[in-house]
Amino acid sequence: MILQIVAVTAGLGLVIAGLGLALLWLLRGRSIGIMLAVVAVVTVAATLAGVVAITIEMIIDGHPKNVVLTVVGVAGLVGLGVAMVVARQVVAASRRLVAAVEAVSPSSDFVPASGRLPAELETISRALEQAYERLREGRERERALEGARRELVAWVSHDLRTPLAGMRAMVEALEDGVVADEKTVRRYHNQIRLEVDRLSHMVDDLFELSRIHAGALRLVPRRIGLGDLVADALAGVEALAKAKGVRLTGEAAPVLPVYADAAELGRALRNLVVNAIRHTPEDGTVVVRAVADDGTVRLSVADCCGGIPEDDLPRVFDVAFRGEAARTPGPDRGAGLGLAIARGIVEAHEGAIAVVNEGAGCRFEIRLPISGPAD
After folding, report:
1. CATH code for the domain of 311
2. Are 300 and 286 in contact (CB under 8 A)?
3. Which residue would you say has higher pLDDT here, 309 or 78?
């Protein structure tokens, strides 16, 4: 008899379960509340079918049979009611979550849904909050980059327009014969050559910066000694330092190898040294050091510029940033790209670059790993 009851109950349960799964498949695109209700109905129906089968098999008649069926029916309705309540709560929580997502605008942050949510929906809410935070940070970076690009275009346009206008005036004076004496003609020619050189450097910087921003900077790393790198950088800017009346000092450990692209890293270091010379007054000193420190090397350039305003420190490496006092550069000033290029080159080497106020000026510092894949 027991085997027969088990067989009948299992058979009815499987039939009802199959019908329930088929119904869930048909309703797979509907509300989760409806799906939960179907699950509850299938569970109650399978239970009722088993109880009815047992009741019939045990040949319960009369009042006991009615009592059993009534109790089972009431229990099924209670279970169905509880399932409906749970379904309504889940649906309400999901709607609150959807409303919180729909309430987000391009100018606002994601505000989590009010009230407590089921654990799974709470996890989704936290994930959405983190995703919207990343999107917001991305939008801010894009706005900052767009602002920097517009500022760069405006400043470069100004820096191009001014020397071009001067060269045009000098060329016209030479063509029209307004200037005829040899000394003035020679001075005009020298000035035109200097302006052409400055414009060429500006174009080179713009090209380098565009490669960095496009991710097209291709490094050819190898083991190099920083002593040689410092010496080459100082030799390349010696003429500028003498013209400005600035003393240069270089210090490097005897054996200090680093895995890097010598040409690109040398350019980054020269940019820092040139920037230091330009902002150091006459008779000031620029010190370049290369030291090892706990698995990394530090390349530092210290100047006597008088320091950088604290509000400007976070923007020093931004494209075209010169500071309020230097928006109109003199003949020896660049387009404000040198520090941005240095940062791009250092980051391409998986290093870090920073600036701090120190002593009579500020100190720029590059940090790089001592060794690389060549070890």
Report:
1. 3.30.565.10
2. no
3. 309
pLDDT digits (tens, 9 = 90+) for 196-219: 888 888 888 888 888 887 778 888
Contact between 265 and 328 (Cβ < 8 Å): no
Q: Residue 281 has what DSSP assignment?
A: P
Residue 136 CA to residue 109 CA, distance in Å, equals: 8
Which run of H or of E encompasses 227? helix 226-236
* CA distances for 337 relative to 137, 204, 355, angstroms: 24, 10, 16
Are the CB atoms for 318 and 342 separated by under 8 Å? no
Instruction: Output the DSSP codes for 28-67.
Output: TTS-HHHHHHHHHHHHHHHHHHHHHHHHHHTT--HHHHHH
Instruction: State the Cα–Cα distance between residues 152 and 155, nearest whole angstrom.
Output: 5
Cα-Cα end-to-end distance for the chain:
80
Q: Tell me which H or E stretch contains 68.
A: helix 62-102
Q: Does residue 220 or residue 60 have the better pLDDT?
A: 220
Q: Which of 102, 129, 153 lies at the terminal end of a domain, its last residue?
A: 102
Q: What was the pLDDT predicted at 66?
A: 66
**pLDDT for the residue numbered 326:** 39
Number of H helices, E strands in the chain: 9, 7
- Candidates 76, 71, 156, 134; CA nearest to 333 is 156
What are 185's two structure tokens?
């003609």
Most confidently modeled of 61-65, 91-95, 130-134, 189-193? Answer: 189-193
Supply the DSSP symbol for 302.
E
Final residue in a domain of this structure, among 74, 102, 130? 102
- The answer to whether the CB of 355 falls within 8 A of the CB of 364 is yes
Residue linked to tokens 């706005």? 143
- Statement: residue 286 has pLDDT above 90: yes
Amino acid at 259: Y
Instruction: Report, as an integer, the average pLDDT of 328-352.
Output: 75
Report the 10 Å Cβ neighbour count for 9: 19
What whole-number distance in Å separates Cα of residue 100 and Cα of residue 85? 23
Average of per-residue pLDDT across 362-374: 77
Structure tokens at 309: 């305003």
- Indicate whether 229 and 98 sit together in one domain: no
